[in-house]
Structure formats: structure tokens, C-alpha cells
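Field: COMPLEX_INPUT
Field: COMPONENT_COUNT = three
Field: RESIDUE_TOTAL = 1180
Field: MODE = joint
Values follow.
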Amino acid sequence: MSAKNSEVKKLVDKKYRHGFVTDIGSDTIPPGLNEDVIRLISHKKDEPQFMLDWRLKAYRYWETLREPDWAMLNIDPIDYQDISYYSAPKQNDDGPKSLDEVDPKLLETYEKLGIPLHERAALAGVAVDAVFDSVSVTTTFREKLADAGVIFCPFSDAVKDYPELIEKYLGTVVPYRDNFFAALNSAVFSDGSFVYIPKGVRCPMELSTYFRINEAKTGQFERTLIIADEGSHVSYLEGCTAPMRDENQLHAAVVELIIHKEAEIKYSTVQNWYPGDEEGRGGIYNFVTKRADCRGTNSKVSWTQIEAGSAITWKYPSCVLRGENSVGEFYSVAVTNNMQQADTGTKMLHIGANSRSTIISKGISAGHAQQSYRGLVKILPTAHNARNHTQCDSLLMGKQSGAHTFPYMEIKNPTAIVEHEATTSKIADDQLFYCRQRGLSEEDAVNMIVNGFCKEVFRELPMEFAVEAQALLNVSLEGAVG
Amino acid sequence: MKKIIQDRDTRSAAALTTIEAAFEKLQAEPAAGTPAWLQPAREMAFANLRDAGFPRVKDEDWKYTNLTGFAERSAAYLENQPLAVKDKTATVLLGDLPILENQIRIVFVNGLYRPDLSIAVQPDFDLELTPYSTADSSTGKNILHQQPIDHNVMIALNTAFLADGLAVRVADNKKVGKPIHVIFIADGQPCAAQPRLSINVGRNAHALVVQHHISMGESLTNAVTTINCAEQSQLLFVRLQNESEQSMHVANQVVRVAADSLFNSISIDFGSQLARNDLVVDLCGERAQANLYGLFMTNGQRHVDNHLRVDHHAAHTTSQEIYRGILNDKARGVFNGKIIVHTGADGTDAQMSNRNLLLSEQAEIDTKPELEIYTDDIKCAHGATTGQLDMNSMFYLRARGIPEASARMMLVSAFAQEIIDHIRSASPALADYLSTQMSKQLPDIT
Amino acid sequence: MLNIDNLHANAGDTEILKGLNLSIGTGEVHAIMGPNGSGKSTLAHVLAGRDGYEVTGGTVTFLGTELLDMLPEERAWHGIFLGFQYPIEIPGVNNTYLLKAALNARQKFRGEPEIDAAQFLRVIKDKARLMQMEQSFLNRSVNEGFSGGEKKRNEIFQMAVLEPRLAILDETDSGLDIDALKIVAAGINALRSEDRSFLIVTHYQRLLDYIEPDFVHVLAGGRIIKSGDKSLALELEAKGYDWVLDETATPG
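Field: COMPLEX_OUTPUT
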């Protein structure tokens, strides 16, 4: 019983929904990368000397590196001299403004993306930092958060307003020597979000950052730093979109999380960068280094990611479980369709006694897409009674699609229990037929089964975003059946 | 760290230079008895070894196993190239081994065939057992045909210094139910043994082959086995490595399985200071099937590494991999299983499982069960677990009055026995022998 | 309601149905019995539109429409329900959610508005009670972790919610103990009505002790070889299938 091809075709023709371009004057520096460019970025941001020194060290180190090639990705060579490393909407280059002064075109852009920035129209209980190309446009609810003692601001503001916190924590989780893309980011990063939750504070709202690449020929290199001091709690979400363009654009981000004693960070990502067209033209190259350092006893971090966009995804949000009883979690849904490629997973480094980690990874690969799960669970001799459970499932939709699993387990403590399970299969014909017999169309049946497959992960998302994630998944797989 | 790695690579390179000199010397004056028909293959293989060099630490396949010591011991032994002196060691070692059901025993010492130690084989047209050293040129070329000469550098090293080996040929429709016991002894003389075994199982034929390694002292073995299973054939292949605790042992098995045939393998490592085993299985024809079982038990500061790779090339092929490891003291175990399902291999069913017991504070296991899948109509799963003995089982046994130490031994033994039991129906004598060997290790292991 | 005329169908290269004729009137209960491998399940699957079967000849009309041209979901929308012999587990898909989506898909097909959520909940609660299913079953994933009996009860529960015109029950009695069988049969009987027909596929007469059929057919070798009333089922139970096979055997 073959699907009604016309129906499927109709669905395929629905396109990426965030692919529009905002026509706005911008201050974009010419393509190219050298020490002068780095000095220029640092100068534009009016940074203290220690930041410039750090950037230059990172740049000099980066120059000695070559791109990593161990991931299962086919990437056209990237010309790092053909990228502009700084682009900002015109009016916005002299520091933060009140919302009234923000260009209405920008507000409209975010409105179109479903992220209203006027506080009265905003999602209740969610504060937003809106990053447009290289700069933060505005951050909502700053005052309300400040009342609770929470700092939530653009990274560039934090460098000026809280230099002691930046100097103390920057690069302590992801040093600039960590890897090629982390070094590049450290040298040229322009903006991002900074969050500090003081001792004992439960952040009163969800925090979120919305990243938008707009300008052509630019890269986005944001850096996020979140510090949860003792006994604090925060839930943070990031979303990402970009216009449809025929050329690839580079996005290389670094996220550092520091979690002190008894504190918890819940970090969720809905990544929907432009994935390129059906032939694989265009799309974002997404190289991200994310790491959480659970420094204190009973600290906890939870990464949840919905990876639906990007032509290339290279991303391994990791947990360093240093504290006793610390907990690391990684929940991931990655969807690749057409010519998309993703090599993603996590690292769980168990150092503290009784540290526990959970990995649930759900991969869906359709069309000609290739997807890999790559994970490391490492139990050091000090991690007595450490526990890890990994469940890693892949669903294939299409003869040309691929799903690969590379789990590394290095266990140096006998009291640890490490369990890994993985399955790969296509959507079962029996399940499809069952749903259709009950009256669901094939497309709906697929969506329902795929959503069921991903349910364990969706459950981890904050309520406001779970629905969006589910819808995104359905859109990403449109046309995958037939 | 970087310094250490560089240092290792430099030492391996130096070892290779020594080996090159040894090779040239050997080419100039070949050892007596080396078949001339091996010559071209040896030269080709050596050229490849020289170009590729020994595996480096950064090679993904050698991430957890350092081969520098092996390279250096190879160089030292090959430099001397002593003629194997016949002494009593081999006889003593053989004395401990069982005579298996069908009384066929072929013995090699330091890689060379020893008719005096072998148990006479009745000439049989349907079951040919041909030592390379006795093969004439046309038979020899036939033997070499279809064999990998330089599939990887270790196979290239074996080929380059190959002096002897055994070709097993089971004719079409011949059913050899009982074991063909091939014993490779490394007697501890400074000799780099390069054992070679090639097995061809004909259409609709059945066979059981046991490749058995034992040694004394600081032996060095680099074994290569090539297996071809023709259509509708069945082969049970047992590899047993029970060498001395000072030995270094590298082994490669390259297996091709044709349509409708069944390849079962049981791979057991008890011995060696450094053991590395690579089993590569290609399921080439439709409905070809492979079941691969493995057990490794080690203690002290020893290291054992099992690499598996199964390629599903054809439709409706199935494979199952079940490996278990038991590690004590400061021992380190490595398991790497890779299943690759190629485009067109629809209807593939592949299941892999690796379970490990860590019995001491300083033991370590690195395990990596991988899947690479390039088509959608498949069913694949893998799992790996590592931990200690199950506390509930321990408690249960102790509550029944069994002392803790015995309870531990009982549970470890049961864990290992499940792998050994796969041999029992085919060869009770071998299963009994393995159980005994396993039990002997237990007090050290648990 | 349903008219099957000279139906031929293959599974792979093997012809399973070899010219089957069957006519089911509105409100009738038909039982199809037959030895293993006679084509009973194939018939059920072909009617519901499962992949893997090729119809090589004949026609099937359902309520005046050609059935074989339709997709499985379209058949469901027209009122065909298949109770599966082996109900599949669908991890992560909530039982109630599936039913709601199924009902709404049918509403959409009929051009009617989506069903009211509160009313829907009342309906499923009532029907669950009918099948003596606990509330918790409704919120579990479809058939996941259900016992054999629970799966079969869930099938009849789904039928009760979806209210089909023609229910095809494929070996619904297999794997049920006597208590579960009674519950399932009671559920089916409660759903008998003037405008709903049943096609009950079974190997044993047992189920028919509880659900009285109007007609009984014997399927063998891909054809209906004998039809009768409920007494035929009893006769089959007493004498076995060989008796009919012998009786209807044609020389050559």
C-alpha cells in the first residue's frame, strides 16, 4: 500500500519557516581574520585588557591547530578568511538601550519568529536575551530578575559590569585550548548571554536566549556562561534560526556552565538553524562546544537538546561530574533529513563518588541524511559507586539514510555500574499499519510514532517549548515517508 | 603525555628499521625449508609494512593498546633469527593438552610444522591438511590465492616473515563433525613466531577447527588465520589463547561467509601479558550468518584487547556477537565491536552484547560497541554493561551458607561458563578442558 | 454491506486466496473458521489493506464503494475495524491519544468538527468500564507491557470507541483464558446492533459459545467451501475439519 504521493509531495514543498531575511542596515567588518580583527572586536566592545589578552592567546593557539576530522561528517573546506567576524545592526553599536530605542525592524523580526520582546506581550515567566548576528539586541525582564539578585545580560555587558566574575570563570570549563572551534570562538566571540544565580536563589523565571543569524557571509560566534552558585536553580533555553541562503554559514559557539554545591542548571536547546535545501545547498555549519562543570556536592546539570536544523551539526554537550553525588543528564533528539549530517552525543566524566549520569539519545535519520551518536562515559578511579545508564536509539526512514553509533566506555573503578543499550531500526510496518487501520493518515501515523519514540526526551523540556519542539520535529520530517 | 606518545612512535619506528635489516638479511639467505613460492608475497607484504609502519597511538583502532613493546620484541627476536632448537619444552606443554574426539592433532612450534609431535593424519581426499612447508609450488600458490597478504600491518608482518603454516581444506558436502586440533606452541626461545592457518570449507560441508596457542616464557606470536566458508557450509571455529603470562600475542582472523552458510566462532583469551585479537567477518552472501562468542579473563598487569568487525554486505544476513570479560588486579581489558550494515543488506539482523566484570580497584575496561548503518530495513541492537558481581546473587548464595570467596568464584565461573558452553555439544572434551583451565585461573582472578 | 466476489490474493509468490466469495448483510454476524494456513488471517488483512499482499483478482465492495482501492486509513474512515491477532506495541504513544487522533481524522474525513474533549473523555471512560479496563490502561502507551489478555481487551475497547460499521476480529480468542474470553465476548455482544456487522475469524468454536453467529463459513484452500448456521460450528468442533475437507473434495 504505497502512500499517496501527491500528499507527500505537498508536505515536502512546505519549507523552512524561519528563512526570511531582515533588511536592516548593519555595521559589518570585511571578511578576514587576523590579530587586528580581534583587536577591533575587543575595541568595539570596549573590553578590559584581560579580555583582549585572552582573545589573542586563543587566536595564536588556534593558528597552530587543524580542524578535527574524526567526526563522521563530509564537510566542504571552510575558508576562515572569507567570513566576517563581526556584524551588528547599525543603531546598536554603542551599548545597551531600552526597548523603545531598538529598531522596530528587529522587534518585528523576533515577533515573526514567535518571540515577542515587549514584556507585556512576552511569554509569561520567560525572560529573553535576543542575539542578532554579533550582538545582543535587548534582554527582557532584567529589572525583575535583578530584584531576585539574578544577573541575566548580554555577555558584552557582563564583561564591563562584572569583570571579576568573567575573569574568575571564563574559560575554566572550556579552555581556549580545548579544541579547534573552541579556540576560534575564544578569539572572536562577539556576544551571548551571561547568567549568575546567587546562593540559594531559585530563578523566578525561565531564561532564554534567542540566536538569529541574519547577515550574509558572517559567522556567529556566541559565548554563554552560566554560574549557579550554591543551592541555586535555573532553567535556561536557547533557540536558533537563520535565513535561507545558498552558501554555508559558520556558527561556532561555546557554552560553559558552572554548578556549585546543591545547585542545578537545566539547559534546553531547540536548534533550528537553516538546514540547507533538499540538494544540500546552503545551511549552517554548527560546531558547538558545550560543557557543564558540576563542581559541588549534590550539584546537577541536565542538557536537553532538540537538534532539527543545520547542514552540519558537531556537538557534544558534556558533564564533568566532579562533586560527590553530582548528577549529569543528557537528553537528545536529533533529526536529520535530506542531505543533513549530524555527529552529536555527549561526554560524561565521572570524578566524584556516587556521581550518576543518564544519557537518552534518540536519532531520526531520513532521506540521504547521515547521523552519528558519539558518546564517552569515563569513570575515573575516584568515582566510587558511579552509575551510568545510556539508551541510544535510532530510527531510519529511507534506504539512503544512515545511522551510526560510537559509544566509548572507559571504566577504571570496579564499583561503578555502566550500562549501555542501543537499537537501530526503521519505523515498523506493523506499527504504521496499526495506526492507519485505526484511521490515521500515513503522515500522521509517522508523526505519532516518531513523537512516541522521542517522548522520553520531550518530557524533559520546559512546558512552553515541548509543543514547539514536537511541531518542529514534524516539520523536519515532512516528506520523509513515501 | 604528548612526549610519551612521541617517544612510543619513535621507538616503534626504530624497531621497524631493525626489522627491515632482518628482512633484507633473510631475503639474501632464506632459512632452510622455507617454501620458495612464499617469496613474492613476502616481498609485497614487507613493502606494505615498511610504508605503513606499526600502528600509532593515535590510530583509532589502537587507541587503548600500545604495541611498542610488541614491535621492540619483534625487532629483537627477528634480528637474531635463531633456528628453532628442538628441546623438551614443547613436549612438556603438549603433555597437558587433551586429545580431542577425532584424534587429529597438528602441532607447530615457533611457527614451524612438527610432524614428530603431530598425530598422524590419514590421507583423505575430502579433508586435506597441508603444512605449507610440504606443499609444492602449485599447491602453494593455490593456498596463497584468496588469502589476505597485507590486510593490515600485522598481517603484513606475518606474511613478510612467514615460513610455514597449515592449509585445511574440507571438500564439498564433507561433514567433519569432530575437532581438527591445531596447536601453535611458542617455546620461549627468542623467536618471533608467525603462525598461519588457512581454512576452506567447501559447499555444504561442515567442520570444527580449534586453533590453540600455548607458550613458555617471553614468547612472541603474531598469528594470522584466513577462513572461507562456501555456500551452505557450517564452520565452528574455536580460538584458544592460553599462552604464558609473559607472552605477547597478536592474532588476526579474516573470515568470508558465503550465502546460506553459518560461521560460529568462540574466542577465548586466558594468557599473555599483551594479547590483541582482531576478528573480521564479511557476510558476503544472502542469509549468511555469524555467531561470535568471546571470553577474556586476565589479572596482574596484563592487557587483553578484542576487536571485532562484522560487515553485512548482503540481504537477510544475521550476526550475533556475545563477548564477556573478567578483569582483576591492575589488568586492562578492551572490547571494540563494530557492525557495519552496507547499502543493500536489507533484512539484516545484528545483535551485539559485551558484559564485563571488574573485580578489583585498579582493573580497567574500555568498551566500544559500534554500529554503522547505511540502509533502513534492518534490526540492530547492541548493549554493554560493566560492573561487579550482582550483590543480590552474592547475598542469596551466602544466605544459603556459602562462604563469600566461594560464592564469588561460583558466580564468576558461571559468568564465564556460559561462553564455554557453546562448545560443549560439538566437543565435550574441549569444553571440559576449557572449564578446567578456567577454574585454574579462578583463584587468581577472583 | 460487504460483498467479496471471486477474490484472489498472493502473499509473496504464493497464492493464498483462490476465488473467495462472501456476502455480509447489515447487522449480521459471520464466523469464518478453518484449519491453520487456510487463509483466514490473509482475508482479514487484505480487507483492512495491509502491505505484503497482492490482490490478483476479484472485487470487494463495502457499502457500495470499491474497498480495494482505498488506503488502510480510508477504509477505517468508512467504518472498517480490524481487531488484530497480535496487537502491536507502540512505545511512547498514549492509548487515549491514539483514539482521539483516530476519531478526529474520521471527523475531518466526514467534514465534521473535532470531537469535544470532555465528551470524548466520558465516552472512553464508559467504554473502558464495559471492557473492565482500569483507568491507568488508558494513559499507558499502546499495548506496551500489556499481557496477552489485556491487549485483546484493548482491541475491543478501541472498537467500542471507534464504533465501526464492520468489525473484523482476527483470532480475538487466541491466547485468552476463560475469564478474559467472557469479558471480550461480552464486549463484542454489547456492540452488536442492527447497523453493525461482524466478521469473526477463529480457529475454534469456543468463542462462538459466547457470541452467537448468524452464519458460519469454512475457509479452506483459499475458498469458502461450506456455509451454514451456528450448528455448523458445533459439527466442526465434534468432527474436525477433515470431515468438511473430505466431503467437499473434488476428484482430480
